[in-house]
């Protein structure tokens, strides 16, 4: 069974967290991301590296960032 077949209903399957954060920063910028997801790694001296460390350790924050990413994808489609 291929990876695509194993999770056909997961739109995030195969997308790395780093790619998600980079695309969000390109689309929204750090300031707007901090407004949408209220976490310090987006507010105080933000960087991709520090964000990834925090998001990998904090499931609730990662969930919010993944939800924001899915919303961004929907906006791009429209």
Report what the structure shows.
The chain is an all-alpha fold. The chain has one domain (about 15-75): SAP domain (Transcription Termination Factor Rho, Rna-binding Domain, Chain A, Domain 1, Orthogonal Bundle). Helix content is about 70%, strand content about 0%. α5 packs across α6. The longest helix is centred in the C-terminal third of the chain and has 19 residues, at about 60-75. The protein is globular. The protein starts with a helix and ends with a helix. The model has no long low-confidence stretch (mean pLDDT about 90).
| Low-pLDDT residue spans | none
Q: What characteristic shape results from the CA principal axes?
A: globular
The chain-level structural class is mainly alpha
Largest sheet composition: none
CATH H-level superfamily? SAP domain
How many structural domains can be distinguished in the coordinates?
1
Would you tell me which CATH topology applies? Transcription Termination Factor Rho, Rna-binding Domain, Chain A, Domain 1
Number of contiguous helices:
6
Please trace the helix and strand order, writing H or E for each element: HHHHHH
CATH architecture: Orthogonal Bundle
What is the share of helical residues? over 70%
Percent strand equals: under 5%
User: Which CATH top level class fits?
Assistant: Mainly Alpha
Distance between the amino and carboxyl termini? 33 Å
Mean pLDDT across all residues, rounded? 89
């Amino acid at each position: 069974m291929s990876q695509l077949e194993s999770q056909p209903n997961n739109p995030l399957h195969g997308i790395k967290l780093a790619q998600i954060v980079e695309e969000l920063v390109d689309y929204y910028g750090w300031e707007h991301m901090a407004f949408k997801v209220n976490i310090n790694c987006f507010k105080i001296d933000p960087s991709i590296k520090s964000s990834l460390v925090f998001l990998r350790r904090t499931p609730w924050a990662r969930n919010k960032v993944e939800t924001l990413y899915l919303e961004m994808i929907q906006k791009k489609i429209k």
